[in-house]
Amino acid sequence: MDDCGEIPPPPPGHRLLVTADLMESGQHFRLDWHPPRLLGRKLLMVNLSDLDASGARPVGYTLTLALGRDLDPAWLDAFLSGLGDASRETGVQVLGGDTVGRVSGLGLGITAYGHAARWLHRGDLRPGDRLYVDQPLGASLRGLRKLLAGASWDPSDPDLRAHLDPSPNLGLGLRLAEMPEVSACIDVSDGLSKDLRMLADASGLSLALEPGLPEDWIQGGEDYARCFASSLSRAELESRLRMPLHPVATALPRGEAPVLAYDGDALRALPDRSFDHFAS
Predict the structure, then answer these.
(1) How does pLDDT run across 201-249, given as a tens digit for each residue?
(2) Where are the domains of the chain?
(3) What is the pLDDT of residue 264?
(4) What's the CATH class of domain 130-269?
């Protein structure tokens, strides 16, 4: 694959949004535990999750592959089959891309494009907004722990499915963007402690964690949930969206840190507990 492609132009009143994600073997996945077909699906789904959280409808993507010389051609066939299945399932077409060789390992990249009538910025939080997620968090982290302990792919295990074959709630972001009372949204990919920090910093506010959140919710990443802020009550949101929601934080005027957690009755700075791509 090495060709130019045309990005479908947005309809009148819409804007074009773009997101990119790169996965490196040994850093983001391991070939000995991630079935190639599922990895192809995951590569597309995580990019579509980003677009959806911004209120965009996906319209296409480009694919970049850096393939090690020792890669089994059958592995690549299965990976592309999974990617094709996900493309057909979501109705999103490949627009072009590039393929290069490397000595060893794999680099997998997608740049995805979407159209949004209303862009859900990360920086539009308002004091008093409450933040919710559309699903319980931490399943992907539990799946990772199981894999590190020697487990292998089992489709009946919800934790392994969450880590190896995530299924974000695509389409929810579009519905949220239609609600003026929803001020901001992000997909939980780096972990709640980091993703909340990005929302707080972009908005110039602080976010106080909901008391009693499980540690896996705070630390875990790759859940690909919608995390959004709204001035509406939980009951009103659940009634409109027809789904259960889980409160995770409240927006406050800027305090001593972007993310705060209750220590008794006092709020203390919460350190970033998410995965660090650059840690030694």
Answers:
(1) 999 999 999 999 999 999 989 999 999 999 999 999 999 999 999 999 9
(2) 11-116, 130-269
(3) 85
(4) alpha beta
**CB neighbours of 272 closer than 8 A, spacing ≥ 6?**
193, 194, 197, 259
Q: What is the DSSP string of the chain?
A: -EE--PPPPPPTT-EEEEEEEEEEBTTTB-TTTS-HHHHHHHHHHHHHHHHHHTT-EEEEEEEEEEEETT--HHHHHHHHHHHHHHHHHHT--EEEEEEEEESSSEEEEEEEEEEESS---SS---TT-EEEESS---HHHHHHHHHHTT----TT-HHHHHHHS----TTHHHHHHT-TTEEEEEEESS-HHHHHHHHHHHHTEEEEEPTT--HHHHH-----EEEEEESS-HHHHHHHHTS--EEEEEEEE--SSSEEEEETTEEEEPPP-S--TT--
Taking the whole predicted model, whether its pTM rises above 0.90 is answered as: yes
CATH fold of the domain at 11-116: 60s Ribosomal Protein L30; Chain: A; (3.30.1330)
Provide the token pair at 140.
């992907």
209: Cβ–Cβ under 8 A, 6 or more apart, which residues?
A: 196, 218, 248, 249, 259, 260, 261, 262, 270
The rounded distance, in Å, linking the Cα atoms of 115 and 52 is 10
